[in-house]
Amino acid sequence: MAALIEKYPPKNPILDLGCGSGDLAIYLSKLGNQVTGIDFVESAIRIAQDKVATLPHETALNLRFQVADARKPSLLQEKFGAVFDSGFYHLFNPDQCEQLIDEVASILKPHGCYYLHEFAIEFPIPNVPRQVSLDELQTCFTVEKGWRIKDIQIVEFLSKVAPPVPAICACIERL
After folding, report:
1. How far apart are CA 1 and CA 154, in angstroms?
2. Of all helices (H) and strands (E), which one includes residue 39?
3. Fewest 10 Å CB contacts: which of 33, 93, 144, 155?
4. Which of 3, 44, 7 is nearest to 25 (CA)?
């Protein structure tokens, strides 16, 4: 995702959906961005807030973490210049993803971008994140629906707890 961020710098403020323990939000903040991270897991938000306490003051000032339902970011009643989603979209079935896309569309400022980083592999066990395909993204994010795909890349999803897996990374602009 770092290559997409460099190629298409995000506009502020930024929302990190399903931020977990805050690593991506902290990275974005260190780049000088104003970032809000949301997750429904209270313990993950506590860990993220603890990390903020160890950061330089100017970085910490640009970070906010809160417990919230990342499936309904419109409840924040804020508009964002960019929305980041690393490993959240792929947790839902396609119908639920349509609802999530509508939610993201409602909070993005015009020409704001939705940055996705999702699994591009189907796992042979139930109840794990599903595969997100290039075709799916090209169908869900069309000009007719108010989106423009700026870039899609096949990459790897890196994790601290598992080996890298094939992934898809995209920067999609709200028209």
Report:
1. 10
2. strand 35-39
3. 144
4. 44
